[in-house]
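From the shared-data thread, chain only:
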Amino acid sequence: MLRKLSTDSLLYMVTGAASLLVYAPVVFFDFQSGWDDGWAVKNTSTILGFTPGNLKSVFTQFHLGQYSPISQVIYMGIYTVFGFNPAVFHLYPLLLHIANSCLVLLFIRRLLSRYAYVGTARKVAFLTALLFAVHPLQVESVA
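Structure, as tokens:
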């Protein structure tokens, strides 16, 4: 027997589906040669993988003026499992953006539920999350 979806579940699904619909083409992109893919993703730290020395350098040193150990560890994990498959490297920020869009929905709803009627809080939170999910300002961080 199918269980009826709650309104909240449906709002999360629509928010995630909107993000997926707008940003799904990024999965088919290749690595960019003129942008940061060459030095941020395809670098020695990614290729060396999870060795103690490499992890120490990732967490203690800047790479070309940037300190981003969490991203580098994630890139190492993706490379270890999938190699330099651009689809997987582009899928990761897309899934992260979908999760963040749902977190915006949750945060705004909880924030407004203290001050507004539940139905109003739900609508405003959904519209805010939807705007966050599909706004062109997010293109660079997702793609």
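Residues 44 and 54 are 9 Å apart (CA to CA).
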